[in-house]
Amino acid sequence: MLNWAQAFSTFCFLDNHQYPAGPHAVECLLAAGVKRKLSLPAGGALQTLQSFLEEKKSWLFGHLGYDLKNETEALSSGHPDHILFPDLFFFEPEILVRLTADKLMIEAADPEAVYRAIQEQPEYPAVKTSGPLQIQSRFTREAYLKVIRELQQHILRGDCYEINFCQEFFAEQALIDPLLIYQKLSAESPNPFSAFYRVQDKWLICASPERFIKKTGHKILSQPIKGTAPRIPGNEKADREARQELYRSAKERAENVMVVDLVRNDLSRVCREGSVKVDELYGIYSFPQVYQMISTVSGELEAGTPFAGIIRAAFPMGSMTGAPKKRVMQLIEQYERTRRGIFSGAVGYINPGGDFDFNVVIRSILYNATNQYLSVPAGSAITHYSQAEAEWEECLLKVAAIKKVLGAAG
Questions:
Q1: Could you read off the pLDDT of 200-241 as tens digits, one per residue?
Q2: pTM
Q3: Which of 163, 178, 327, 351 is close enough to 203 for a disulfide, judged by CB 3.0 to 4.6 Å?
Q4: Is the separation of the CB atoms in 152 and 249 below 8 Å?
């Protein structure tokens, strides 16, 4: 199916890899081809998107880039961007394929022709690649540790309480086969908010475990992740102890509860008074390489709240920024070295009834096929209790699975 989709210059594939998602859940969504689209830089983009939504009730797929912060707050972005996804992009697909546990549904002008084309797709041809990639970091270990300590000085001065600081791992002159890499990443690290997404020459290969925000009827729900521990394969006792250690960690709990409070505050701006609640705090969830501490916050939306209003209240997500949000985004701009772009933004869909679901773009490969630039950003939450060396190791852990599927050196 994905081999067939590659004939389209724009498509979006969302896959939950059969993680529990409730009865009759859609396991996979594939949107391909473009009936209409909206591609905009930050600055009035959300309001234009709202008008685009109101023109016609339809499925829309796309993304919200991190630099939309420049219109949700009075901020700017001055770092280089080598991937060049637009700040906001949505499209109404020509073809929509929905897959559940027992059913394949196709919405298209000629569904049978689409089904035949998928079934008759020839064997996937090998694509020329550049061989082993040399992955570099924008920071040396020493420079990274220095920045973490400087950020902790900001925390001591009371500028902020928690900040998500990211660094970029990258390769130049990279020739990769995006579909083959997505398949390898899915096998190595299947995650419930995975995405394989193309906009012309720009590709996102995403193995995200995190949901940003979901709307079902009047209910809104966010599931921030803060807290990570490595799995211990082949040693059940040590692996179980790693899980318990994460649950008991005062540092990880402090990070998690800070972001939960931030999300509660964000959702309260668009929800009925008193309706915002924490459904789960400090939940420990198992993934192939790591354990994650995930909390769930929900609320009942005020009647008539538009999509743009919800996003304006909650984006960028607290788990990828920190508290207080505006100040930490200023510090992110000051200390990071590249523009985040689609990374720590969100990819997802809006359905014709106005419900939607978006992930957090983490654990991802970003690739521009024209300039042959590949980016693998990673970050962690910095608090007063953080150990700079441990934060460096956490970033390396988060990119380890990706470097493995890339066959990367460095």
A1: 999 999 999 999 999 999 999 999 999 989 999 999 999 999
A2: 0.95
A3: 178
A4: no
Give the H or E element holding residue 129: none
Cis peptide before 324 (omega within 30 of 0): yes
- Residue 132 — φ and ψ, nearest 5°? -55, 130
Joined together, the tokens standing for residue 371 give: 């300039």
Tokens of 286: 């198992």
Structure tokens at 362: 């983490």
Q: How far apart are CA 90 and CA 64, in angstroms?
A: 9
Write out the H or E segment, with its range, that includes residue 339: none
Torsion of CA 288, 289, 295, 301, to 10 degrees: -60
Q: Is the pLDDT of residue 125 over 90?
A: no
- Give how far Cα 308 sits from Cα of 72, 243, 312, 313, Å: 10, 38, 6, 9
Give me the phi and psi of 185, to 5 degrees please: -65, -40
- Catalytic residue positions, numbered: 210, 226
Q: At what angle do helices 178-188 and 388-406 cross, to 10 degrees?
A: 120
Residue at 362: amino acid letter: I
The single-letter code of the amino acid at 299 is: G
Q: Within 13 Å and on the Cβ side, how many CA atoms surround 357?
A: 16
Per-residue buried b or exposed e for 373-402, using 16+ beta carbons within 10 Å of the residue's own CB: bbbbbbbbbbbeebebeebbebbebbbebb
Report the DSSP pairing between strands 211-216 and 356-359: antiparallel
Structural domains in the chain plus CATH codes: 2-406 (3.60.120.10)
Which residues neighbour 167 within 8 Å (Cβ) at sequence distance 6 or greater? 137, 138, 139, 144, 336, 337, 377, 378, 379, 395
Distance CA 151, CA 165 (A): 9
Distance CA 147, CA 138 (A): 12
